[in-house]
Amino acid sequence: MRPPLESLRILEACVSASSFARAAERLCVTPAAVSLRIRTLEAELGQPLFMRAGRRVVPTAAAAQLAGRIRAALDGIAGALDEFQAATPPLRLTAPPTFASRWLAPRLARYSLAGGLPIEVDVSPDLRDPSAFDVAIRRGLGGWEGLEEYRLAPVDVTPMLAPRLLGTRRLEAPGALADFELLPHPDWQEWFRGAGCEPPRDLRFAAVEYPTHELDAHAAVAGAGVALLSPLLFRPFVEMGLLIAPFPYVLSGPAWHFALMRADDARLAPRQFCAWLCEQAGQPITPLAEYGQ
């Protein structure tokens, strides 16, 4: 019976470090666990592997030779994996700018750490031709022809403004926003109605209309006006005290953020990535068509 690969890896670490304690630090385990594994390995191999020399442990000649061959084998495995990953084409992902920077980017780091495929990110507000991507993230009502759709999160917005813009004033009701310049957004009228207030007739809008919600948020932080922003994406700005969300009402939907892939794509990688996105969003891992839209 051959010993486990993990035991051989610990042996190689102990030989190269000349110390069980330093080997334990490298492997992120306790020195006691290393000592136990070495004793077990000695029993499995039927011979001692180390001799004590003061506080140091000295490998036997046979153990040193074995550790050298283990290192060569581990290097070979690492090289084979590098070659395999280099030969694997990256997953082509397209996403809108604000969603990509605020929601997607922090999670992609976790995906990479978990051993996911390389990702090639295209940032664009427009849906690319299906031949140009493997997975797309877009907002809408669904119903894209030829694409499999996975719901991620509803599109949500609520007013946010800088504390210095508010000053000592208190916003008792949504209509009080008429005292401020509003940053242009197509959902202002709908938000007022959802908050139980007919949109004031004397609303004032800032002269600059920004092309992304990210720029809207930074303009709001600078005091340029009240922005209609997504709590999903900009809650950190509120938590850091850069912005205030003065009203509890959040306009949510009917549009959603979707992960999309070609319906005729039989490859496993795009579907697995869509499933991973659904897990990150806390949504069912099921294409929209399968649960009746």
Average pLDDT across residues? 90
Largest sheet: 6 strands, mixed
Question: What's the helical proportion of residues?
Answer: 40-55%
Give the H and E element order. HHHEEHEHEEEHEHEHEHEH
Radius of gyration: 28 Å
Give unreliable regions as ranges: none
Given helix and strand content, the structural type is: alpha/beta
Distance between the termini: 55 Å
Number of helices: 10
Shape label: elongated
Strand order of the largest sheet: 4-3-5-10-6-9
- Estimate the strand proportion: 15-25%
What do these coordinates show?
This protein has 293 residues and is an alpha/beta fold. Helix content is 42%, strand content 19%. The chain has ten helices and ten strands. The protein has helices spanning 5-17, 20-27, 31-45, 61-87, 97-113, 163-166, 188-194, 213-221, 231-239, 268-281; strands at residues 50-53, 56-59, 91-95, 119-123, 135-140, 147-160, 181-182, 204-205, 227-229, 251-262. It has a six-stranded mixed beta sheet with strand order 4-3-5-10-6-9.
Question: What's this entry about, in short?
Answer:
The chain has 293 residues and is of the alpha/beta class. It has helices at residues 5-17, 20-27, 31-45, 61-87, 97-113, 163-166, 188-194, 213-221, 231-239, 268-281, and strands at 50-53, 56-59, 91-95, 119-123, 135-140, 147-160, 181-182, 204-205, 227-229, 251-262. The strands form 3 sheets. The chain has a 6-stranded mixed beta sheet with strand order 4-3-5-10-6-9. Strands 1-2 form a two-stranded antiparallel sheet. Strands 7-8 form a two-stranded parallel sheet.
